[in-house]
Amino acid sequence: MSGVLVRWMHLAGHEQVIVFYRSCFAVAFYLVVIVAARRTKDLKPGGQSVMLIASGLVTAAFAICVYKAYNLVSVGSATFLLYLSPLLVAVMAPLVLKEKLERSTLLCLGIALAGTGLLSWGQSGNSGGSSALGIVYALASALAWAVLMIIWKKLRETTSPFTIGIWTNAVCAAAAAAFAIPSTYLVTPKAWVALVVFGTVSFGAASLTYFYALKQVKVQDAAILSYIEPVSAMVLGFALLGEAPRPQDYLGAALIVVAGILLLKLRTSVGGPEAEIEFGEAPEP
User: Fold this and answer.
1) Is 276 helix (H, G, I), strand (E, B) or coil?
2) SS3 call for 67
3) Greatest mean pLDDT among 74-83, 175-184, 274-283
4) Which of 105, 147, 171, 176 could form a disulfide with 20 if both were Cys (CB 3.0 to 4.6 A apart)?
5) What is d(CA 221, CA 86) in angstroms, rounded to the nearest whole number?
6) Percentage, residues of the chain above pLDDT 90
């Protein structure tokens, strides 16, 4: 939904406004859920203050970088570079989390990346071209997203998803506040509606679900499954913005769906153990 909602806001060049207010509405969502669930103890950082603050700051950096990239380079280039992040996760996870890098991960990653390449090929954005600064922003957003996935996976070992969600968004809002509040006058009624949905649905309910699920799977698998996002963006772009898919888009989407199904099939199979590539010691059973 992100691409559609951002397009409806018409705040290109004022990305800090989007980051600030979507985070504020996300904080409001988490507060309501925490109070309703009587989990006020989850408002405390629980000894993870440093990582929670880092989560919020990296989230702010990621959002600014990805929105800037979409305004400076073609949508296709920005999307492809952003979705290099699962490759970075596959490299970082064995080193930081001691996860084993399985050959099936590389296979599914390659299929999904090829599909993303087809979805991205030939698309143009506001600039219609590329710039060195835009490419830097896109690569920085990929790195930031990979780091975020590692941070969140590490936090989920000991921290409630409610704590991660409210602290991440609160810190993110605080980081953008001074730059965003003076530009509030630019927000139209339609943009306010989009911001509320963005904050409560995309960064509230969806992120809460994501944090719960992240504890149950390898971060590498979560990264590969994130490739479904450009497919859903294509569907929503057609349904809500009238952007008709091109022939290669269907093939790209099919490859991404195949990669996801293959990954799930391999993970739920009861066959023998997979061959693995170790970058560090395996965790204790």
Assistant:
1) strand
2) helix
3) 175-184
4) 176
5) 9
6) 40
